[in-house]
């Protein structure tokens, strides 16, 4: 998408990313760099998910400053300090955090200092409001030490459709046009991979049609990080995250080479620890890049990538928010109008990886702008933020599936606006409510592992609740929730049989209270079970507000109850006095 206004970085400056020089003397530089989705093509082309809304909406997924662009920013600061432009060596590169644009724009603090002016040796770092993000050292002398990489031992055929590597929903590549440098896999084996690249041009880096003057070529450097997942995907499939964490050394044999034909990137790897051979173990990568005339453009040594697998559902929702699904329908027969939808939560240990990047990406893939403000304001433990986000995501998915079944129209998650009433019950709305179908009624139940959502037509209130059978609880507390007239439902039962029966009755009351829109309000006995069949699978629950019909199931180690307003007298096998 074109920027609405020209990029402030699309200038003839030799240091275009340094927007404001705050301090400059013989020993150090302090500058600001402001980047944003509305200002920079390279930011819009580095969004960590597929499209999250209709084109032209202005809503994007989570964008971040590419690791290799952060090197360009620091190189510009060092060049300003050195009075020279030709960076020859980058070394001791360390990434501490993602430079993520949670609000669509971000101002970076850029620091550079002299380490050894005589040797042309400088250091730089980027700091964000979260703290140190990345640091590196830069040399302006041709201190080249790295050797070329060995040829591949064998050239295995490539098993992936290369032209679709950047297609939403296919593989792990999220890069937009500026960074789409992978063209063809020349060959691969257990030692590494050779890849034919695009001409790695820089036109359109900041703004369409503009070719900047940069010190490095971030498009070419970004290919270092892209060839690694190209190799990994042959072993583990696309469901992973992989990105550089440290780079020992990059040697640049030409100043900002671009628009070259025949560029080939050769990458070789070995485990960082020879004893750790699992594919997830840290690996040392070496690189060599040449053009079509055989000229060496760069070499890289000792790049270590972080790697962790992700769940298939997260991968689907991240790479293709419109067509990927976190969950699926629950195959239980309620009635012909009610949909039950189940979403498993991402494991907590995965949510903690790499500064919580998975949750941050998912939040931007499913939330609209107002919900993102709420998300950013959430405090407290990770578990609370995880359950809040997945509750929202589950509601949106269930409604999307329901709307598609009703109208044939597939909505984005961000099209579904979720709110809560005075009792905390969720409701949904969106532009589609006036154009496609009246917003349905919804109900949500969740624990630390799953969310279950019930959806029904707008004129038909619904309630859902579930409890895991394996959860420890005190049966006497559940029994206290029963009115005297309900005690006959548990007579003669003990042990696990009693536990399950009490859970059935409790979930029925919870679901009924949600259906009636009141919640239990600490008075479960006020929701009276007036009829039930022998197995407590069909129940009638009465309250001053109304009468509710409840279906109760045992499903995947849980007791699940779904409630609808009673349309007539429930036929039962057992009536209570």
Which properties best describe this structure?
577 residues, alpha+beta, 26 strands, 22% helix
Report on the architecture of this protein.
This protein is α+β, with helices and mostly antiparallel strands and 577 residues long. Helix content is 22%, strand content 31%. A hairpin with a 5-residue loop joins strand 17 and strand 18 (426-429). It starts with 19 loop residues before the first strand and ends with a strand.
Summarize, please.
The chain has helices at 41-44, 67-82, 218-236, 312-319, 348-351, 357-366, 369-377, 382-407, 432-435, 475-479, 495-516; strands spanning 20-24, 28-36, 63-64, 89-95, 100-101, 105-116, 121-128, 131-139, 182-189, 192-197, 240-252, 264-271, 283-290, 296-309, 328-329, 339-344, 417-420, 426-429, 441-446, 450-456, 462-468, 528-532, 538-543, 546-555, 558-565, 574-575. It is an alpha+beta fold. β7 (121-128) and β8 (131-139) form a beta hairpin.
């Amino acid at each position: 998408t074109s920027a609405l206004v020209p990029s402030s970085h699309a200038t003839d400056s030799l240091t275009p990313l340094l927007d404001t020089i705050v301090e400059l003397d013989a020993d150090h530089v302090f500058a600001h760099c402001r980047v944003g989705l509305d200002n920079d093509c390279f930011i819009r082309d580095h969004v960590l998910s597929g499209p999250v809304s209709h084109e032209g909406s202005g809503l994007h997924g989570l964008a971040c400053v590419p690791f290799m662009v952060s090197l360009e920013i620091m190189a510009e600061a060092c060049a300003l300090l050195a009075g020279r432009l030709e960076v020859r060596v980058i070394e001791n590169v360390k990434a501490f955090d993602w430079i993520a644009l949670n609000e669509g724009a971000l101002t970076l603090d850029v620091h550079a200092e002299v380490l050894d002016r005589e040797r042309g040796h400088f250091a730089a770092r980027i700091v964000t409001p979260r703290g140190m993000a990345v640091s590196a050292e830069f040399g302006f002398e041709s201190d080249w030490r790295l050797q070329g990489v060995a040829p591949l031992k064998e050239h295995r055929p490539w098993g992936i459709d290369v032209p679709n590597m950047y297609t939403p929903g296919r593989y792990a590549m999220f890069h937009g046009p500026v960074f789409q440098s992978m063209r063809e896999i020349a060959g691969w084996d257990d030692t590494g991979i050779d890849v034919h690249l695009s001409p790695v041009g820089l036109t359109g880096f900041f703004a369409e049609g503009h070719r900047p003057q940069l010190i490095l070529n971030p498009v070419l450097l970004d290919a270092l990080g892209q060839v690694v997942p190209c190799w990994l995907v042959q072993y583990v499939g696309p469901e992973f995250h992989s990105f550089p964490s440290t780079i020992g050394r990059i040697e640049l044999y030409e100043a900002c080479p671009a628009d070259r034909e025949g560029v080939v990137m050769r990458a070789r790897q070995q485990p960082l620890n020879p004893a750790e051979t699992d594919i997830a173990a840290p690996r040392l990568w070496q690189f060599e890049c040449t053009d079509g005339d055989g000229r060496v453009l760069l070499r890289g040594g000792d790049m270590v990538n972080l790697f962790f697998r992700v769940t298939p559902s997260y991968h689907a929702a991240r790479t293709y928010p419109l067509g990927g699904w976190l969950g699926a329908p629950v195959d239980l027969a309620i009635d012909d109008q009610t949909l039950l939808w189940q979403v498993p939560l991402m494991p907590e240990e995965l949510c903690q990886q790499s500064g919580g990047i998975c949750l941050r990406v998912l939040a931007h893939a499913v939330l609209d702008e107002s919900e993102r403000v709420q998300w950013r304001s959430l405090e407290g433990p990770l578990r609370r933020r995880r359950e809040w986000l997945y509750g929202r995501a589950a509601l949106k998915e269930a409604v999307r599936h329901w709307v598609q079944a009703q109208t044939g129209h597939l909505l984005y998650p961000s099209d579904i606006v979720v709110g809560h009433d005075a009792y905390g019950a969720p409701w949904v709305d969106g532009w589609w409510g006036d154009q496609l179908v009246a917003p349905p009624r919804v109900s949500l139940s969740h624990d630390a592992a799953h969310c279950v959502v019930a959806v029904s037509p707008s004129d038909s209130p619904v309630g859902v609740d579930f409890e895991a059978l394996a959860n420890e609880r005190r049966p006497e507390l559940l029994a206290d929730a029963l009115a005297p007239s309900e005690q006959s439902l548990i007579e003669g039962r003990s042990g696990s049989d009693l536990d399950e029966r009490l859970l059935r009755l409790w979930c029925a009351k919870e679901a009924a209270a949600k259906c009636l829109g009141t919640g239990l309000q600490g008075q479960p006995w006020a929701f009276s079970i007036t009829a039930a069949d022998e197995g407590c699978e069909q129940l009638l629950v009465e309250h001053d507000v109304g009468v509710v019909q409840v279906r109760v199931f045992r499903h995947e180690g849980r007791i699940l109850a779904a409630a609808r307003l009673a349309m007539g007298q429930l036929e039962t096998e057992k009536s209570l006095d």
